[in-house]
């Protein structure tokens, strides 16, 4: 049952500085909640009137602002670490990463995420001085960092150089706006964490808002380009022949992606136990789904036929990964095929199919998910969400679906002139 509007919670103040929240207690009295010295505090506003409670909440917010804006003398933190007002960026990022990788955390970070956050820390410390005080950070620092990251480009490690003790950087590749967004968001999160545990008195960037990508690249595949790509995928990787049809792992993965509209990683981690050939459906497990959403979807005829053929050429296994990369020979160990391998194969098939140029510059597996959503533009939105594993219809509209040229021309027929009084 939806909450009555008169009982809806209300928040005031800036996040990281003087954010306070009020909610109605079961007794009918409004309560106030905020964080002070790293601890959550709840107090009664001593009224059942919502307008009066909002007035009192604003007063509490202003009181907190005045307290936290007051000058604070350097003093050691409760754990004996660096004084709060003298905290440097290097110490902050080091402590934040240590806390993120704590062994008793409820949700442990994956190795990929740990490596990614390590890159964030290296990039930030490479640009900012090691002795930069956290209290001195402002918006101009972030603007300078954004310009510096765009100049230096991709800083990920390509691999260990056997002739050097340090890794070599991947040269000559530009980075997008989203990469810089992630690094700045990680810095903001570290600052918010430090305020929450009372390591710094005030969030220096509490009013900063990370801007979205102005014009994100979302390349799409039409049916003709998809068939060209699929034809070339049959010659990339190890080939298997079944009833005069040539199959490769890439070709099967492309057919499954086009037939189900799911993400590359979810397809890569599929297991034979997840596929029911009798009911002609596949179950996507929570552990392999990006948004941890367990759901079951039907298989199209082409995807079902291709998976049955792939199952046959693989020896009709009862369990294991659908796209397995065999481990040490003779041990029977298997693991899922690496995402880098699929990406490399996809790039080779794309080049052989002639899908080059600016239109296909960032073309990847995710283009098939957009194709799936666009092909189902006439499907009811609730059903499409269940088919593709989306939790929000707004995401489909904003990021995935695109009207065809024919649909746009058809839409022009509904225009009616003169409704505003003009001929």
Strand-helix topology:
Blueprint lengths: L9 E3 L7 E5 L5 E7 L2 E6 L5 H20 L19 H12 L10 H17 L11 H14 L4 E3 L8 E2 L7 H20 L26 H11 L6 E3 L2 E3 L1 H12 L3 H5 L6 E2 L4 E4 L10 E4 L2 H13 L10 E3 L7 E3 L2 H14 L13 H10 L5 H8 L4 H8 L4 H8 L11
Antiparallel strand pairs: 1-2, 2-3, 3-4, 5-6, 7-8, 9-10, 10-11, 12-13
Helix pairs in contact: 2-3, 3-5, 6-7, 6-10, 7-9, 7-11
Distance between the termini: 49 Å
The oligomeric state of the chains shown is: single chain
User: How do the strands line up in the largest sheet?
Assistant: 1-2-3-4
The CATH topology of the largest domain is given as hpI Integrase, Chain A
Instruction: Return the domain count.
Output: 3
Q: Give the name of the CATH superfamily of the largest domain.
A: Intergrase catalytic core
What's the CATH architecture name of the largest domain? Orthogonal Bundle
Structural summary, described in words:
A hairpin with a 7-residue loop joins strand 12 and strand 13 (334-336). The chain has 14 helices and 13 strands. Helix 2 runs antiparallel to helix 3 (111-127), helix 6 runs antiparallel to helix 7 (249-260) and helix 7 packs parallel to helix 11 (366-375). It has helices spanning 50-69, 89-100, 111-127, 139-152, 177-196, 223-233, 249-260, 264-268, 301-313, 339-352, 366-375, 381-388, 393-400, 405-412; strands spanning 10-12, 20-24, 30-36, 39-44, 157-159, 168-169, 240-242, 245-247, 275-276, 281-284, 295-298, 324-326, 334-336. The chain is α+β, with helices and mostly antiparallel strands. It is globular. The chain starts with 9 loop residues before the first strand and ends in an 11-residue tail after the last helix.
